[in-house]
Write a structure and sequence with these properties.
By secondary structure, this protein is of the alpha+beta class. Helix content is 27%, strand content 37%. It has a seven-stranded mixed beta sheet, with helices on both faces.
Length: 167
């Protein structure tokens, strides 16, 4: 397995993974499949380029993208000590191999080297098994958002989690 920062060259493969994640797990992602249209694809051509404020990590097995997550730092001066993880997904056929953990540990290690960042925040569906991985990696729950997402007439509760990089 190889983990690396994604670039523009990875866009098509990442976009396919993104579509699959939203289609297979609508309870875990904010956009609907219908919202991931050509305009969003064009926006992603800019967003996927790594910067000091954001980047995407990908996990590859045999040259194929099997997992990804993104990181974004807050921009306002008073919030720059905070950052967020979004869009965590590993394809079902590659699960239970430690890929999610490897991606998360790689991300945490990389963020620890970013000057001034003290926190990594995320929201996870209460029913999502990844919640236990986050706890094992040092994240703590600091809130519970009832009815965080609404899918049709069903609701998904969200757990707000944070990893403090500095005490």
């Amino acid at each position: 397995m190889q983990i690396r920062v994604l670039t523009e060259e990875d866009l098509k493969e990442y976009w396919s993974l993104r579509l699959r994640s939203v289609q297979e797990h609508p309870e875990a992602f904010i956009p609907t499949i219908e919202e991931l249209d050509d305009q969003k694809y064009m926006e992603m051509t800019v967003r996927i380029k790594p910067t000091d404020l954001s980047w995407f990590l990908g996990a590859f097995e045999n040259g194929e993208l099997v997992g990804a997550m993104s990181w974004k730092r807050e921009e306002p001066a008073k919030l720059q000590h905070k950052s967020h993880i979004y869009g965590v997904y590993v394809v079902p056929e590659a699960r239970r191999k430690g890929i999610g953990r490897a991606l998360l540990e790689h991300l945490i290690s990389r963020v620890k080297k970013v000057a001034g960042v003290e926190q990594i925040l995320l929201t996870v569906a209460n029913s999502n098994p990844a919640k236990s991985l986050y706890l094992q990696c040092g994240f703590i729950s600091y809130g519970y958002e009832k009815k965080s997402l609404k899918i049709g007439e069903a609701y998904v509760d969200g757990v707000l989690m944070v990893l403090f990089l500095k005490d």
